[in-house]
Design a protein that fits this description.
This protein is mainly alpha-helical and 128 residues long. It has one domain. 79% of the residues lie in helices and 0% in strands. The chain contains five helices and no strands. Helix 3 crosses helix 5. The protein starts with a helix and ends in a 5-residue tail after the last helix. 21% of the residues are buried.
């Protein structure tokens, strides 16, 4: 259990760093897209603590998957369930522009791959 908690913490720190870097790197693109929809970006009601908790929850999913699957399956399942499906839904309602999604999806796959690598390294024998 200690290894699992450590895997979630370390992978969660990585996920949060990556998410904040991604948000910062694409801030102008997001702002332009939301301004065109008459919506402020970032929204005033956005709570940073919610995103931080989200990052650790995502890491928890990755760590759990790492106990069941190899590295690529762990990253792939996590990426599909956390990012790809959400992005498809957001594209459908125009909350994400296609050009941005095409850049961010590979970024998030690498993010999940590194999180899975971290989790599997910490979990050792417990991770498959």
């Amino acid at each position: 259990m200690r290894k699992y908690i450590l895997a979630v913490l370390v992978a969660g720190i990585w996920v949060n760093i990556s998410e904040f870097a991604r948000a910062y790197a694409f801030m102008d693109s997001w702002s332009t897209h939301y301004t065109a929809m008459n919506v402020a970006y970032p929204p005033a009601e956005m709570k940073m603590w919610v995103w931080i908790v989200w990052g650790f929850l995502a890491a928890g999913v990755v760590a759990w998957l790492a106990t069941k699957f190899d590295l690529l399956r762990t990253a792939g399942i996590a990426w599909i369930s956390i990012f790809l499906l959400t992005t498809i839904a957001m594209l459908n309602i125009a909350f994400v522009p296609m050009d941005l999604a095409l850049v961010e999806l590979p970024w998030t796959f690498v993010e999940m791959l590194i999180a899975a690598f971290i989790a599997r390294k910490i979990l050792g024998d417990a991770g498959q």
